[in-house]
UniProtKB/TrEMBL annotation:
Domain FAD-dependent oxidoreductase 2 FAD-binding: residue ranges: 5-532
Keyword Nucleotide-binding included in the entry's annotation: no
Molecular function in Gene Ontology: steroid dehydrogenase activity, acting on the CH-CH group of donors
Source organism of the structure: Cellulomonas shaoxiangyii
Gene3D superfamilies, per database record: FAD/NAD(P)-binding domain, Succinate dehydrogenase/fumarate reductase flavoprotein, catalytic domain
Alphabetical UniProt keywords: Flavoprotein, Oxidoreductase
Protein name: FAD-binding dehydrogenase
Pfam families: FAD_binding_2 (PF00890)
Top-level taxonomy: Bacteria, Bacillati, Actinomycetota, Actinomycetes, Micrococcales
Amino acid sequence: MNRHDVVVVGAGLAGLVTTAELLAAGRRVLVLDAEPPAGLGGQAWWSFGGLFLVDSPEQRRLGVRDGADLALADWLGSAGFADDGSDRWGRAWAEGFVDFAAGGMRDWLHRLGVRWFPLVQWAERGGYLADGHGNSVPRFHVTWGTGPGVLEPFVRALLDGHRAGRVEVRFRHRVTGLVVTDGRVTGVRGDVLAPDPAPRGAPSGRTATGTFEVAAPAVVVATGGIGANHDLVRATWPADAGPLPARMLSGVPDHVDGSGIAAARAAGAHVAHAARMWHYPEGIAHHSPVWSRHGIRILAGPSSLWLDADGSRLPAPLFPGFDSHGALRHVTGRGDDHSWFVLDRTVLGAELALSGSEQNPDLTGRSVPQLLQRVLPGAVGPVEEFARRSPEFVTAATPAELAAGMNALTGTARIDPDRLARTIEARDAQVATGLGKDLQVTATAMARRYVVDRLVRVAPPHRMLDPAHGPLHAVRLSVLTRKTLGGLATDLEGRVLRPDGEVLPGLWAVGEAAGFGGGGVHGHRALEGTFLGGCLYTGRVTGRALVDAL
């Protein structure tokens, strides 16, 4: 292939969707990626495959009443967009995405062969007033096949296009700069990296064996965010949120370093809202790491007590599953590098799950027999394995023993055993009333009104100190870096903008590199299921706009 209509930089989900749209219109595409072929699909392959869908058949079968107006109200209440014009494009992309999530997204993906687990999950419940942060109803649709299942139709389109001679993929090609001619982006340049047999997600070498330069009428940046570049994450994190700790985990592979965004900025692109990020406070170190500082996020139901590093409960409504960003800012605002979940064996078995494709082999492997085990007593296999193998889990028969184990893990004496016992006893007394004033206890009871939570997600009310539900567990939680909410500013066609608001000709951006649309479609907070969805939406819209532009 001697001529390319478009160069797509990055072979993750957003880049693949863009490529699929271009190929469907008969365009010729060159895809460049710094990783080995095993890394095709990027971060999306490792994801849980959750998608934010609105008024879906899956919701309606469960009696969930949803709609575009309610979803947009939730989005705006979470985003906190500014009124000074700086969020103009992000808000416009948000309105378009919600319409898509309530309209064509499910049908489009269904036609491509994507299917979903029928039990819709309720993420980011918020817990504030009606116009505040959070999902009013469950909207988190887990893809049958998780992240690999979302990728499947777009990988298939890439392979079909390759066989037809209309797409070329060059792995181990790391873009280090954009070629700008008379104010227009006309190509890319970079290093050819030495072959590396590294498996998917593992760190790969950066030894250059040569350089390259490619010209094309259009360049698409689809390189993701900055999550693995901890120095850049710390430097960019807002000062008013407290410092990010020296010890953090990575929820993304090492190659997610922000280099594509930096190359576009150097070429004249505007990076909007760089300080807005979506990291998690509920990370635990992987017992079998694939990438550097590999962490996994705990997806907890609402019953676990969430304690700070000194053993005090986090303030309402910072309960597990309600406001991740609020909990993160509480932890970092205190200057801590960890917090705790305290729970019992019953809660662990019913409510603890782990994010990611590899931690959910039943859903990833589309195994119905394995899936049915989720309704049986006890934790799912990967959770049991973490509880057994991870030093982050402490198990004890009494609060005093639990406090001793927590202090031994951190090498401190910050958890007072008597205070920990009083905290658990006070919570248990509220449960014993059958009603109670404790907001977490009442929120947990309310969660069980939703049939999915009652069946597979929320343990029946009980006293944690009841021996029948023991032993007790504590899990040390660390900050887990994940997503960049800001990014390259784009208009509604995906064209990258300059700092003066004008289009930078020849350059487009999709996915996380574009803040999932407009340089910040989420504003300050996300509703979950919107990251993969943002890659799908920006790739589809931008790919189709490119077809017209070319």
